Protein backbone atom coordinates (compact mmCIF):
# COMPACT_ATOMS: atom_id res chain seq x y z
CA UNK A 1 0.00 0.00 0.00
CA UNK A 2 1.44 3.40 -0.99
CA UNK A 3 0.19 5.54 1.89
CA UNK A 4 2.05 8.70 0.86
CA UNK A 5 0.35 8.80 -2.53
CA UNK A 6 -3.02 7.98 -0.97
CA UNK A 7 -2.59 10.70 1.68
CA UNK A 8 -1.54 13.23 -0.93
CA UNK A 9 -4.61 12.41 -3.04
CA UNK A 10 -6.89 12.79 0.00
CA UNK A 11 -5.22 16.08 0.93
CA UNK A 12 -5.66 17.38 -2.63
CA UNK A 13 -9.33 16.40 -2.73
CA UNK A 14 -10.06 17.98 0.66
CA UNK A 15 -8.31 21.16 -0.48
CA UNK A 16 -10.50 21.24 -3.59
CA UNK A 17 -13.70 20.76 -1.57
CA UNK A 18 -12.94 23.05 1.38
CA UNK A 19 -10.73 25.66 -0.23
CA UNK A 20 -8.02 24.83 2.32
CA UNK A 21 -4.35 25.14 1.33
CA UNK A 22 -3.43 22.75 -1.44
CA UNK A 23 -0.56 20.26 -1.21
CA UNK A 24 2.76 22.03 -1.42
CA UNK A 25 1.46 25.04 0.51
CA UNK A 26 4.11 26.78 2.63
CA UNK A 27 5.06 24.92 5.76
CA UNK A 28 3.24 27.17 8.23
CA UNK A 29 0.01 27.18 6.20
CA UNK A 30 -3.16 26.87 8.24
CA UNK A 31 -4.98 23.59 8.38
CA UNK A 32 -4.48 20.86 10.95
CA UNK A 33 -5.05 18.10 8.40
CA UNK A 34 -2.43 19.51 6.02
CA UNK A 35 0.10 19.73 8.85
CA UNK A 36 -0.74 16.19 9.92
CA UNK A 37 -0.30 14.87 6.38
CA UNK A 38 2.99 16.72 5.93
CA UNK A 39 4.23 15.29 9.22
CA UNK A 40 3.09 11.82 8.19
CA UNK A 41 4.95 12.16 4.91
CA UNK A 42 8.20 13.28 6.58
CA UNK A 43 10.71 10.50 5.82
CA UNK A 44 12.38 10.98 9.20
CA UNK A 45 9.18 9.91 10.97
CA UNK A 46 7.97 7.19 8.59
CA UNK A 47 9.77 3.98 7.77
CA UNK A 48 8.66 1.69 5.01
CA UNK A 49 8.54 -2.02 5.58
CA UNK A 50 11.45 -3.86 3.96
CA UNK A 51 10.54 -4.98 0.48
CA UNK A 52 7.59 -2.56 0.19
CA UNK A 53 7.42 -0.23 -2.84
CA UNK A 54 8.48 2.72 -0.66
CA UNK A 55 11.38 0.95 1.07
CA UNK A 56 14.55 2.91 0.43
CA UNK A 57 12.77 5.57 -1.62
CA UNK A 58 13.50 8.27 0.94
CA UNK A 59 17.27 7.81 0.69
CA UNK A 60 17.96 10.62 -1.77
CA UNK A 61 15.40 13.43 -1.88
CA UNK A 62 13.19 15.14 0.65
CA UNK A 63 9.57 13.96 0.69
CA UNK A 64 8.14 17.46 0.29
CA UNK A 65 9.92 19.88 -2.02
CA UNK A 66 9.59 23.54 -1.00
CA UNK A 67 7.02 25.35 -3.19
CA UNK A 68 9.61 27.90 -4.31
CA UNK A 69 11.88 25.10 -5.57
CA UNK A 70 9.00 23.47 -7.45
CA UNK A 71 8.07 26.81 -9.01
CA UNK A 72 11.67 27.31 -10.13
CA UNK A 73 11.95 23.78 -11.59
CA UNK A 74 8.60 24.12 -13.34
CA UNK A 75 9.50 27.54 -14.77
CA UNK A 76 12.90 26.40 -16.04
CA UNK A 77 11.66 23.19 -17.64
CA UNK A 78 8.41 24.63 -18.99
CA UNK A 79 10.43 27.33 -20.74
CA UNK A 80 12.95 24.84 -22.05
CA UNK A 81 10.34 22.48 -23.50
CA UNK A 82 7.68 25.05 -24.45
CA UNK A 83 4.99 23.71 -22.10
CA UNK A 84 2.57 25.86 -20.11
CA UNK A 85 3.95 25.93 -16.54
CA UNK A 86 0.40 25.62 -15.18
CA UNK A 87 0.06 22.26 -16.94
CA UNK A 88 3.33 20.95 -15.50
CA UNK A 89 2.29 22.02 -12.00
CA UNK A 90 -1.18 20.49 -12.45
CA UNK A 91 0.38 17.16 -13.41
CA UNK A 92 2.71 17.25 -10.40
CA UNK A 93 -0.20 18.06 -8.08
CA UNK A 94 -2.27 15.16 -9.36
CA UNK A 95 0.54 12.64 -9.79
CA UNK A 96 2.37 12.98 -6.48
CA UNK A 97 0.82 15.78 -4.43
CA UNK A 98 4.28 17.42 -4.59
CA UNK A 99 5.95 14.43 -2.89
CA UNK A 100 9.38 13.86 -4.43
CA UNK A 101 9.54 10.37 -2.91
CA UNK A 102 6.14 9.18 -4.10
CA UNK A 103 6.15 5.65 -5.49
CA UNK A 104 2.99 4.19 -7.02
CA UNK A 105 1.85 0.59 -6.77
CA UNK A 106 2.92 0.17 -10.39
CA UNK A 107 6.42 1.58 -9.77
CA UNK A 108 6.02 5.17 -11.02
CA UNK A 109 8.43 7.45 -9.16
CA UNK A 110 8.90 11.00 -7.97
CA UNK A 111 7.07 14.27 -8.47
CA UNK A 112 5.77 13.52 -11.98
CA UNK A 113 5.50 9.75 -11.36
CA UNK A 114 7.80 8.53 -14.12
CA UNK A 115 7.93 4.82 -14.84
CA UNK A 116 11.54 3.57 -14.77
CA UNK A 117 11.61 2.68 -18.49
CA UNK A 118 10.11 6.01 -19.49
CA UNK A 119 12.51 7.86 -17.20
CA UNK A 120 15.52 6.08 -18.72
CA UNK A 121 14.32 6.95 -22.22
CA UNK A 122 14.10 10.59 -21.20
CA UNK A 123 17.64 10.65 -19.78
CA UNK A 124 16.55 10.56 -16.13
CA UNK A 125 18.93 8.51 -13.98
CA UNK A 126 17.31 9.29 -10.59
CA UNK A 127 13.54 9.79 -10.64
CA UNK A 128 13.57 10.82 -6.97
CA UNK A 129 15.77 13.81 -7.79
CA UNK A 130 13.27 16.67 -8.26
CA UNK A 131 15.33 18.41 -10.93
CA UNK A 132 15.73 15.31 -13.07
CA UNK A 133 12.12 14.25 -12.54
CA UNK A 134 10.59 17.58 -13.58
CA UNK A 135 13.00 17.74 -16.54
CA UNK A 136 11.93 14.27 -17.71
CA UNK A 137 8.23 14.70 -17.00
CA UNK A 138 8.08 18.05 -18.80
CA UNK A 139 9.98 16.63 -21.76
CA UNK A 140 7.54 13.72 -21.84
CA UNK A 141 4.41 15.92 -21.79
CA UNK A 142 5.97 18.02 -24.59
CA UNK A 143 6.32 14.86 -26.65
CA UNK A 144 2.72 13.88 -25.94
CA UNK A 145 1.46 17.35 -26.90
CA UNK A 146 3.38 17.05 -30.18
CA UNK A 147 2.10 13.53 -30.79
CA UNK A 148 -1.53 14.60 -30.27
CA UNK A 149 -1.20 17.87 -32.23
CA UNK A 150 -1.42 20.13 -29.18
CA UNK A 151 -4.63 18.55 -27.83
CA UNK A 152 -4.12 18.97 -24.10
CA UNK A 153 -6.91 16.56 -23.12
CA UNK A 154 -5.40 13.78 -25.20
CA UNK A 155 -1.86 14.51 -23.96
CA UNK A 156 -3.07 14.38 -20.34
CA UNK A 157 -4.95 11.14 -21.01
CA UNK A 158 -1.82 9.67 -22.60
CA UNK A 159 0.26 10.72 -19.59
CA UNK A 160 -2.04 8.55 -17.46
CA UNK A 161 -3.03 5.64 -19.72
CA UNK A 162 -0.25 5.69 -22.28
CA UNK A 163 -0.28 7.04 -25.82
CA UNK A 164 -1.20 3.65 -27.26
CA UNK A 165 -4.49 3.60 -25.35
CA UNK A 166 -5.38 7.09 -26.58
CA UNK A 167 -4.64 6.06 -30.16
CA UNK A 168 -6.56 2.80 -29.79
CA UNK A 169 -9.71 4.61 -28.67
CA UNK A 170 -9.09 7.69 -30.83
CA UNK A 171 -9.64 9.87 -27.77
CA UNK A 172 -9.66 9.69 -23.99
CA UNK A 173 -9.84 5.97 -23.15
CA UNK A 174 -13.04 4.73 -21.47
CA UNK A 175 -11.22 4.00 -18.22
CA UNK A 176 -12.78 5.65 -15.16
CA UNK A 177 -9.33 6.33 -13.70
CA UNK A 178 -8.13 8.09 -16.85
CA UNK A 179 -11.34 10.06 -17.31
CA UNK A 180 -11.18 11.25 -13.69
CA UNK A 181 -7.49 12.01 -14.07
CA UNK A 182 -8.08 14.20 -17.13
CA UNK A 183 -10.84 16.13 -15.32
CA UNK A 184 -8.71 16.58 -12.20
CA UNK A 185 -5.62 17.73 -14.10
CA UNK A 186 -7.66 20.19 -16.17
CA UNK A 187 -9.28 21.57 -12.99
CA UNK A 188 -5.83 21.99 -11.42
CA UNK A 189 -4.56 23.56 -14.63
CA UNK A 190 -7.34 26.16 -14.52
CA UNK A 191 -6.52 26.86 -10.87
CA UNK A 192 -2.79 27.35 -11.54
CA UNK A 193 -3.45 29.47 -14.63
CA UNK A 194 -5.65 31.78 -12.56
CA UNK A 195 -2.85 32.45 -10.08
CA UNK A 196 -0.61 35.45 -10.81
Structural account:
With 196 residues, the protein is mainly alpha-helical. It has a domain of 136 residues: Orthogonal Bundle (Lysozyme). The protein contains 9 helices and no strands. It starts with a helix and ends with a helix. About 19% of the residues have low confidence.
* Span between termini: 37 Å
Fraction of residues in β-strands: under 5%
Q: Let me know the average pLDDT.
A: 80
CATH class category of the domain at 59-194: Mainly Alpha
What is the element layout, followed by pairings?
Elements: H1 3-18, H2 32-41, H3 67-81, H4 85-96, H5 116-121, H6 130-147, H7 152-161, H8 163-169, H9 176-194
List key phrases describing it:
196 residues; mainly alpha; Lysozyme; globular
Concise structural overview:
With 196 residues, this protein is mostly helical. It has 9 helices and no strands.
Amino acid sequence: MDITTDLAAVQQRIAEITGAPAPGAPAGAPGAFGAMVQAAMDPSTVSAAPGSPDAGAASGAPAMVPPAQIDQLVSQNAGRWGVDPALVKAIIANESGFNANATSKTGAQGLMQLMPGTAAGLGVTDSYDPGQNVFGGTRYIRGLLDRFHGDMRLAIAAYNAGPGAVEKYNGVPPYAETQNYVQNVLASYDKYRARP
